[in-house]
User: What shape does this take?
Amino acid sequence: MQGHGPGRTADIRFRLAGILLLVAQLAFIAWLSLRPLAATWVTASNLEPLASIRGDLDVGFAEATRRIARELLLYAPLGVLLPLAGGRVDAHRLASLLRTVLASALISCAIELAQSTVAGQVVDVDTVLLNTAGVALAHLAVVPAVRARLRRRGRGRAPAALLREEAASGVTPTISRVGIAP
Assistant: This one.
């Protein structure tokens, strides 16, 4: 990935791949979350944080683990795909994490609200919390390491190779340490 100015953005191929994968992931989430379910009985909506998790733990550890893992993993790819679609290599770690978590929380809230109109689906605030936590964990596990590697890879390139690439692309090469002659 080559830097493009002070903000250094990713190569267009990476951004395009990120956008396409992001759209595919969001379509999968929408299909899975918004399809009608044939149920003779459904639980009431849960607007109390952690209530359904406590209820699952009361039923059994295996059921609670399965449900929590499902909710953590469903949105987790967004933790990597949102920054990839954004394409900024030199983004601040905390700002990137906050943007990604906020965007995924808004997406999760929107899908939960849309579920209230679908037969057999109920709104659960714990789902939003677990989905957002999954995104944050995936982001923290992958994105900083990948960005650091890309930055090292970009710095490790020889200046002559960069100048040849700029000349081949039609960009006028500039060397910052050369000043104006007296």
